[in-house]
Amino acid sequence: MDIKKILGGVSPYSRTQVDKGDSTSASSRLERAKARVRSTSAEGDKVSVSSDALLVAEAAKAAEESPDVRVDRVEALRQQVQTGTYTPDSRKIAEKLVQSDLEFLRS
């Protein structure tokens, strides 16, 4: 099989040069872009945030501030496992697995 024929005569393995076109340096292009942003924001651009967005931001902040591990819950489960009294609900586990798969397929 010849890859050149599949891709219309262009080899994906050959090195090509990119035409720079504009001879200005990247730093000068960056400075011009920054100047455009500054001039735009100086003209009085405004941003409005919906109440839903504020609610989401508050929820995200609360989630970040909450502890990653609920030590009391982990310790209680650890004791149940060690004593042999831990009995997970297989129906709930199955429901959560199916729910997780459905959410994955929807996105």
Description:
With 107 residues, the protein is an all-alpha fold. The chain has five helices and no strands. It has helices at 3-6, 26-42, 51-65, 71-83, 90-106. The longest helix has 17 residues, at 26-42. The protein starts with a helix and ends with a helix. The model has no long low-confidence stretch (mean pLDDT 77).
Concise overview:
The chain has 107 residues and is mainly alpha-helical.
Q: What's the helical proportion of residues? A: 55-70%
Radius of gyration, CA atoms, in whole angstroms? 29 Å
Query: How many individual β-strands?
Result: 0
Class inferred from helices and paired strands: mainly alpha
Q: Report how far apart the termini are.
A: 38 Å
What's the number of helices?
5
Order of helices and strands: HHHHH
How would the blueprint of this fold be written?
Elements lengths: L2 H4 L19 H17 L8 H15 L5 H13 L6 H17 L1
Task: Name the features.
mainly alpha, 107 residues, elongated, 0% strand
